[in-house]
Amino acid sequence: MPSLRHLSLLATLAVAALAAGCASSGSCDSPYASSPQFKDCGFVNPPNAATPPSASGWKIWSRFLFAGKTGTVPVDAIPVRPLTRAQLDALDPQANHVVRLGHSSHLLKLQGRYWLIDPVFGERVSPFSFAGPKRFHAPPLALQDLPPIAGIILSHDHYDHLDVPTIAHLAQKAERYFVPLGVKARLVDMGVPAERVQEFDWWQAATHAGVKLTATPAQHFSGRTLSDRNSTLWASWALESGGQRIFYSGDSGYFGGFKQIGERFDGFELALMENGAYDAYWPGVHMTPEQSVQAFMDLRGKQLYSVHNSTFDLAFHTWQDPLNRIADLADAQGIALATPEIGEVLTVGQPRSNKRWWAGLK
Known about the structure:
Layout: H1 4-20, E1 38-39, E2 42-43, H2 57-66, H3 85-89, E3 96-102, E4 105-110, E5 113-117, E6 149-153, H4 164-170, E7 176-180, H5 183-189, E8 197-200, E9 205-208, E10 211-216, E11 236-241, E12 244-248, H6 257-265, E13 270-274, H7 289-298, E14 303-307, H8 321-333, E15 336-338, E16 345-347
Parallel strand pairs: 5-6, 6-7, 7-8, 12-13, 13-14, 14-15
Antiparallel strand pairs: 1-2, 3-4, 3-16, 4-5, 9-10, 10-11, 11-12
């Protein structure tokens, strides 16, 4: 029988293969064939000649198998601010608040109602509960302590954004789920009632609990196995609540869509931008910090909020690298940056002092 170490490595490789984009195409038998994003048996990205090609699947797998890693997992404890339900309920119900849960997971309190973005409370982001990338820190509040959830927003179906234990726990508890095309079936398999799930193509919008949501373009891919690549769509999201606009990039490489989104919405008070898991082997599906800053400027954002880091080991850069680079860039360019601690509450539009909480940690 394979050892736990080998099972863990295989699970890591499976997630890494998804993160890097090496897998086979899905079936042509799709109910989404009429989508402008569907072509050649699966969902596709818009043409982007400026994106360098990814390395071959063989090179990527070989690297994960044989190359060493240094500094990708923290030695010191990641600081976490524990949260209570009383603290959440005390937040101003007339404002919009964003709470960092870790990686790309966020709890939002929008005009008094609670929302979740890509919630991942599980211990690992992997096809297996016992192997694969393990979280660096506990969530700031337990899954069972979450307040009533008006809506859950998902960007795509990868394990670090769509977590089976989390969705299974919330299946009957959240009022509505807002997902890209094809992801509904994933949720139904996890126990979510079909009537609570609404699917979106890019630029489609809906309103729920006083929030207008628009699924916007992203440059990424999808899949949860090695045989279902791009059978579901991926998206970024624009939220409008109480006269304020919030953008969430999901996972994306840099592309011209950010400028288009910024033009359509005339800017955003807050932009949650992917900043982590980048690599020269897969340049088209994750942004470097420099590209994240450029995308933020394309979006006409007022405050840049760094996400997709500090919780899981999904690439080869050190765990501090995304934070150091984006903080240096923001300082040099006079950008209002938010790198909150896990559990920290940010109130949209209110002044705050940002700090490099990771400085000095190993």
